[in-house]
Every structure is written in C-alpha cells, then in structure tokens.
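so the lab meeting is tmrw and i was supposed to have these ready like two days ago... anyway. pasting both below. for each one the top line is the aa sequence and the line under it is the structure tokens. i havent really looked at them closely yet so no promises
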Amino acid sequence: QKDADYYLNVYRSLYKMVKLVHEVISAAREAKANPEKIKILQRDNTAALRDILRGTYDKLVVWNVPKGEPPHKPSDGYNDASNLLKLNKQFKYFVKGLEGDQLPKAKREMLFIKLLESIHPEDAKLVIQMTNKKPITGVPKSVVLEAFPKLLVKP
C-alpha cells in the first residue's frame, strides 16, 4: 500500500491532480487546530468532499440504503475502476425523495454496492459512514459549518 501511495503522489505531482476525498479528510484529521482543518477543507474543496460532508451532517439528507456495512468486495486501492470525484453524482439514487425512490430496492442496493466496489476502499468507508450518519472523527460538524457556512441546510 505504501508503494501505491508513493506512485499516486508522484503521478499527482506530475499532472496537478486533485486529492481523493479520503486524503483530504485524513489531512484535516491530522491537523491540530480547527483553523488549520478549515483551511485544508477549503483548499482541497471538491463537489465529492462537500457531498460527503453534507450527507454526513445535514439532517435534511436521509439515506435510502440499509444501515450498517453492505456486503461488498473493496477495490485494491491503487487499481480502482473509478473514483468518488466522478461517482458522487450517483448519490441521488440513494437519498430518499430523489431519483432512487423510483428504483426497486434490490436495484438501488446493487448500485450502491457497485459504487463502493468502484472507488478507493478508504473513500468507500467514508461513504458507508456517511449513509450511517456517523460523524467523521477529527472533522466535527462545527468545523464543516465554518469551512462551508451554506453547505448544511438543516444542521
């Protein structure tokens, strides 16, 4: 895993790529003070990051997938089929009141498992944590509210 992380960082530095969501969350967790956490979240801001934060902390977002961890096979981490920066758009199928309500339950759950298996395993853990409304360790709601004041509709 360390070799994979090394090569991913080299690739990113060559192509000026954005960080994956779990990398931003990890950096924010490691930051000592809240102002530093806020700066990291704002600097590495992506739609996928905001979706994870809102899905975790906004009471208006109600998930339409079973609680707990679904049976899935995590990806390798260095050979992912896709990433959350692209696939976060699929969240609309898993939120009550949106497009996924039209899908049969089995189809919606299959799409959710496919999403988890297509992204980095650490991002998949964040998605599962989000759908279970489990707060992100080291990134409390107060930090999210300061970093993105208009993100949460119903904190």
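ok protien two:
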Amino acid sequence: KKHRAHLIVALLGTEGTHLERCVLLTKLLAAASSSYNGVGVYWGHGSVVVSPQQIQSFATDASVEDPPVLLWVGIFPRKTKAGLSIVTEGLQYFDAKEIKVVDSKRPLEKAMNVVAGVAFITIKGEVIKDGDTVEKIMRHADVAVNFSAPIEGAQ
C-alpha cells in the first residue's frame, strides 16, 4: 500500500488525571483507526506501532484500573551471550523510571511477562525500589528489577 497521508490525533487540555487522559486518547485512536483505512497506529512515547485491529481490541477494555500497557510502553528484548536483556521505553511519560533486565536466564515469554507486569504496576503509580526482586511483586524470585534512565538505542 502506498503511503498517501497520515492522521495525527492529540488530546488537548488538562481535565482528568494523566492516566485517564491516556485511556481517553487510546479510545480516540481506536475510533479514528476504525474510521480510516490506515495500516498502523504509532504511540510515540513508547515507540510502539500496532495495527488498527490491535488498538481497537485493547481500547475496548482499557481503563484506569486496566491500562493497555503494551500499547503505551515499548518492551524491547535482546539476546546476549549470558542470556536475555530487556529494556522499556515509554514509562517516563508516566513519571516512572524505565525498566532494564540484564542477562536473565528465563525464557523470553516469562521474562517479557515479568517486565510487562512491573510496567503495569508502575504506570498505576505503585513504587518499586531499584534492585527489588520481583518475587515480592510477581513470585519470580530469580528476576531482579533495575530501573534506569532511558537507554539510547534500546530498540
């Protein structure tokens, strides 16, 4: 499909909490994506690109209690010689620190689930201290959570 145009959707004003506003913007993006014949939706704060069908599906149940973390936060895994490393992008937008997992021995799916779970917790405003083990949070004793400043080239 040849690119001919793009649509920019923004939510202006200050009514509601930041989280409420992000949920509303997600629902607006879902509505816009169902009205136009687009191929993707880009959430710039997390460098996340999803299909219109994905954002429409996530937006249906999106709420402050159940925010669509995977639409808002990029979670980028990378194989290393010692295991698996993962970094996030987009948590800063929610006044949270980015997450970094270094050289995990866990399988990709399990490590990604831990990172997504911690991102969910921090977006909702719960505080997790640097170096806390995830066992306290998600019953995964062998994964330590380290928070960091954004990592250049994380993608």
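from a quick look at the 2nd one: Strands lie at 41-43, 48-50, 74-80, 83-89, 98-104, 146-148. The radius of gyration is 16 Å. will dig more after coffe
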